[in-house]
Please model this.
Amino acid sequence: MVPADKYNERVVITGVGLTAPVGDSLPEYRANLLAGKSGVSNFETRYIGQVLAGICHFDALKYQKRKEVRRGTRSGSIAVYCANEAVADSRLDWATVEKPRVGVYLGITEHGNVETENEIFEISKFGYDTSVWSHHHNPRTVANSPAGEVTLSLGITGPHLTIGAACAAGNAGFIQAVQMLRLGEVDLALAGGVSESIHTFGIFASFKSQNALASHSDPTKACRPFDVTRNGIVVAEGGAVCTLERLPDALARGAKIYGEIVGYAMNSDATDFVLPDRNRQAECMQLALKRAGMTANDIDLVSSHATATEQGDIEESLALHEIFKDNPRVAINNTKSFIGHAMGAAGALELLGNIPAFDDGIAHATINLDELDSRVPLTQVVANQPRQMDAVNCILNNSFGMLGINSVLIVKKYQPD
Amino acid sequence: MSAEQIRQVILGILSRIAPDEDLSNLKDAVPFREQMELDSMDFLDIVMELRKMYRVQIPEEDYGNLGTMASTVSYLTPLLKDATPV
Model:
């Protein structure tokens, strides 16, 4: 364990770009979260037909030419949109930014399934003649693809990579960026997570085969974390990218500071391919708190990961109970209830939807929570209506994924010394 | 297909692979690359589209015939003489 004082280099969020099924900017997204508006709707997917999904509606042509959209991938377009929005929001003078000192770190749950399925479908129309397999397939499916598209769009010549971390990836993107800033590898990071997952039929089919795909006659009520009638995941697309800087750099240019990343942790369950482990999740939260120099009582708001699966919600709620049982005033909410599970973007989107709470002191709700599952031992869940808090100064953001990967991020309201 | 029909097919392919370009004043005798943004991957798209649409296989050593609209139409005319536009 590295002592907390080792992490004395302070990193802050100075710009936000996002696209979610309920908004293509932070103000729009936040307003819809506070209004209780669901972004889940019907969606036609290959072979399966109608499914439920969280679909984004951003204008890809705001930052890309049509040719670039055609050549790249959906996750690339999402990443390019979010990254450009974040840079614009940061008010950095982009022309003077040292491009070799910028890093791009984007979390992904998976990448390449969409493009591979598309090519297989295409060659199926030609009797599976592989000579019509696209020469674009490899550049579209290399794992760094969405981050690479960001560098092409913004002329960034520093390092770029995606962080494959299942559904813990959104937090993992931020964590990688914090580490690189602290190491001095870069001076500015574009970090977060992206997902194009609704465009692969395989993710729906696999969740369905696992009996973990949500169904409901009303799409807006389909995603029901912690509710006794929940029946699975709603897959969503989306993206969230932030500009991260070391505090002295942000202060020197008078940047707006959304929050300071004061703690993080990642660990592994080492128990199962898909089933989560409350003990490792609790350990992950505890480690993040320790690195932040905090206790559970310092946290005002917990952004939960719960995906509305049978076991996932129970395990996380037990882990949360272990950590926060002595903090009755903490607000625990869930963003997936609005937008579905945005996979690689989930952790980043869920954090950012809560960041405005530093200013307005409101914990957005967990919608569709009509009856709390009796096995969920939490009294602090914000059900159906937003909760006005005395103040929100510290947010803990959970994000967990398959193969037992856990990530926790703690963000604190920036307060000048 | 006639030469004019082949020309229209190529224009259709170019409009799909370079959708931001204005092709209304494309000059048949001038190389594509001097009139529009067309890199090697785009060029392979032309070859791929012809393969998909007409099952015509263009060997790599013949790629030089696809530099201009005029040379492309000239090269494809015997290969597509029995094809119908799609």
User: Anything to note?
Assistant: The radius of gyration of chain A is 20 Å. Chain A touches chain B through twelve residues (CB under 8 Å).
